[in-house]
Amino acid sequence: MALFLSTFINKIDKKGRVSVPAQFRPYLSDENFSGVILYESFVNPCIEGCNIERIKKLSDAIDDLDPFCEDRDSFATTILAGSMQISMDQDGRIILPENLISIADLNDKAIFVGKGKTFEIWQPEKFSDYASSAKIRAKEKRNILRLSGKNDT
Question: Domains plus CATH for the chain?
Answer without folding.
Answer: 7-143 (3.40.1550.20)
